[in-house]
Design goal:
The chain has a six-stranded mixed beta sheet, with helices on both faces. A three-stranded antiparallel beta sheet has the order 11-13-12, covered by helices on one side. A two-stranded antiparallel ribbon has the order 1-2. The chain has eleven helices and 13 strands. The chain has three domains: about 10-45, no CATH class; about 55-205, Aspartate Aminotransferase, domain 2 (3-Layer(aba) Sandwich), CATH 3.40.640.10; about 230-325, Aspartate Aminotransferase, domain 1 (Alpha-Beta Complex). The chain is of the alpha/beta class. The chain is elongated, with a radius of gyration of 23 Å.
Length: about 325
């Protein structure tokens, strides 16, 4: 059908097809959710323009209620995707955990190749090769979430070199170049990227051309490049110093990359109260885990920590007190 073509009423089409009105209404709702049709009071339901992009089933269904998704981070629950947790260690997703998840035939494997939040993991070339070996016989879409992008101190290790036709890289520039940009760049598998483009073109989401041009300029500007490089160095130093201070007090955080520390505690609510009483704001770790039986943690942002050694030591004293001495980070 052509764009702006008027569709029949729900009851009329149901009668013509010999199905219930509820069936047609559900189909209309699905098309509306994908931005392919719209309904207004005067014109009724009209076609916005059917996307001409190919729609692989594994990507078309991503995000539907009940679909399975193998993932190493806590996202997508709000749209009803069934999440299959993939445990990690210091080198990224564990091969055994991914192998177990793949038995459920997930539509996609979503992971953070570096600067993993909140644990600070970074995938090594060796681990990436192990994971790729497991994904080789599967048809699973691979989504790489490079959340901190150019602020990462770890090299980017992507499976796109091995699976270019089913790997999508999403790189955010909001943390490195400014949160007001609210821009991420997506690249990789042509079918999947085109699908995203079509959904944004016919949906309610959009990205300012002015902000896109601003980011394009910043990415090529020598001054901006130097500023980002400096920020990467400062953020890494602040994170490392706090990790060392906490380790000296018996609190091992683990991880080697990112803008946060994953601080193990004996009791999350008690630790939050203790830190709040000292004017220190942290995030409860329970927000970032799927398995609520996991060891309690707190998420401590490190980018804006003080550079004063004495103040940092005092802050570490309070965090260690809240955490409980002798606690070590779980992987």
């Amino acid at each position: 059908m052509t764009a702006q073509a008027r569709l029949p009423t729900v009851r009329g089409l149901a009668r013509e097809l010999g199905v219930s009105s509820g069936t047609v209404a559900e189909a209309w709702s699905e098309l509306r959710r994908h931005g392919m049709i719209k309904t207004d009071r005067r014109r009724g339901t009209v076609v916005l323009g059917p996307p001409d992009a190919p729609r692989p089933i594994r990507y078309e269904r991503l995000g539907h209620w009940g679909d399975r998704l193998a993932v190493d981070l806590d996202i997508l629950e709000t749209i009803g995707v069934q999440i299959i947790p993939v445990a990690c260690d210091e080198e990224g997703p564990l091969p055994d955990a991914l192998a177990k998840a793949l038995k459920a035939r997930p539509v996609a494997f979503v992971y953070q190749p570096r600067g993993q939040s909140p644990c600070g993991h970074a995938v090594t070339p060796e681990r990436s090769a192990e994971l790729a070996g497991l994904l080789e016989p599967a048809a699973t879409l691979i989504v790489e979430d490079d959340g901190i992008g150019e602020l990462s101190v770890s090299p980017m290790v992507s499976m796109g070199t091995r699976f270019p036709d089913r790997t999508v890289l999403v790189r955010s520039y909001s943390k490195s170049h400014g949160p007001d940009l609210r821009i991420a760049v997506i690249g990789g598998a042509a079918d999947a990227v085109e699908r995203v483009r079509v959904l944004r073109s016919f949906g309610t989401g959009w990205t300012s051309r002015i902000l896109q041009d601003a980011l394009a300029h910043l990415l090529e500007d020598a001054g901006a490049q130097a500023c980002v490089a400096r920020a990467r160095e400062v953020y890494a130093r602040r994170r490392a110093r706090m990790a060392a201070e906490l380790a000296a007090r018996g609190v091992r955080t683990g991880g080697r990359d990112g803008l946060v520390l994953w601080v193990p505690v004996r009791d999350e609510p008690a630790a939050l109260v203790t830190l709040a009483a000292h004017g220190i704001s942290v995030a409860p770790g329970s927000r970032y885990v799927i398995d609520q039986s996991a060891r309690p943690h707190l998420r401590l942002a490190t980018a804006r920590l003080t550079d004063d050694p004495a103040e940092l030591a005092e802050l570490a004293d309070v965090i260690a007190l809240a955490a409980g001495r002798g606690v070590s980070a779980a992987t």
